[in-house]
Write a structure and sequence with these properties.
By secondary structure, the chain is an alpha/beta fold. Helices cover 42% and strands 13% of the residues. The strands form two sheets. It has a four-stranded parallel beta sheet. A two-stranded antiparallel sheet has the order 3-4. It binds zinc ion (2 copies).
């Protein structure tokens, strides 16, 4: 991988993308060590959607009694996506990075975050990339893709793929329509907004059938987008669909926890 590293040196600015501190030669790429350390992993999250759990549940998991500990949302709703891995909480530096990653000039940063996500998956989770036949970045609507000529989820997937060697299939899931911005919508409204927003074109159905996939997205809020993309794959006979996101918002999980508390 040495050659790749040399190539990265050519394209990466030699300053941190967030604080502009000069980057050290040893391992700092895209972000300085200080900014990188500001990303907050979710410890002992829900085994399905990655949401932080009430303390009582994490305690019981530590004692080894509860094997499949889920958050209140996942306990009461059925989702097409089996498991979501979230690299960081959507807060502090993760918000700034996520915003930068949406701009095409920060594609190298998004790819570097993809590598960091892959390293984290290997080190911190019971992760087995060989379970997956392909990575599938969440697609944009064709019009937005045409206008921006860039999709940050693809850039993230590129970084993950370079670590794992897992192929990327970015044509197997299509966005069927323009979806209004999720903005201030409730969980139910987000689900309705995203319903059937994706499909797998019939010509790809034989390649999806019986296979396992890892969806890749930059930010998860309610999970409605990931779930509908997973649903489209399941409709074509996908065996398993998991997802990995750079950052996970806590709004939905907090709202449900406070209602059920
Ligand atoms: Zn920095
Ligand atoms: Zn959950």
């Amino acid at each position: 991988m040495h050659g790749w590293g040399d190539w990265l040196d050519l394209i990466f600015p030699r300053a941190c993308a967030l604080c502009s501190a000069p980057l050290l030669d040893t391992g700092e790429r895209g972000l300085c060590g200080g900014c990188f350390a500001g990303l907050s992993p979710i410890e002992n999250g829900c085994l399905r959607c990655g949401a932080p759990l009430p303390e009582s549940k994490t305690k019981s998991r530590k004692r080894g009694k509860a094997k499949a500990v889920r958050c209140p949302i996942c306990e009461t709703s059925s989702l097409a996506v089996t498991r979501v891995f979230a690299f960081s909480i959507y807060a502090g530096p993760a918000i700034k990075i996520a915003r930068k990653m949406k701009e095409s000039q920060h594609e190298p940063l998004a790819e570097q975050m993809g590598r960091s996500v892959a390293d984290w998956l290997l080190a911190e989770t019971p992760f087995a990339i060989e379970h997956y036949d392909a990575l599938i970045p969440i697609p944009q609507h064709w019009f937005r893709r045409l206008a921006a000529r860039y999709n940050q989820s693809e850039a993230l997937a590129n970084g993950i793929s370079r670590r794992f060697g897992c192929p990327i299939e970015d044509r197997w899931v299509h966005r069927t329509r323009w979806t209004p911005k999720q903005g201030m919508k409730t969980i139910a409204e987000r689900r309705e907004n995203m319903r059937r927003a994706f499909e797998v074109p019939p010509k790809f159905a034989p390649r999806v059938h019986g296979r396992s996939f890892l969806l890749v997205d930059d930010v998860m809020t309610s999970g409605a987008t990931l779930d509908q993309a997973a649903w489209a794959l399941k409709q074509r006979g996908a065996r398993l669909v998991d997802a990995v996101v750079f950052a996970r918002g806590l709004g939905a999980a907090k709202a449900v926890s406070s209602k059920t508390a």
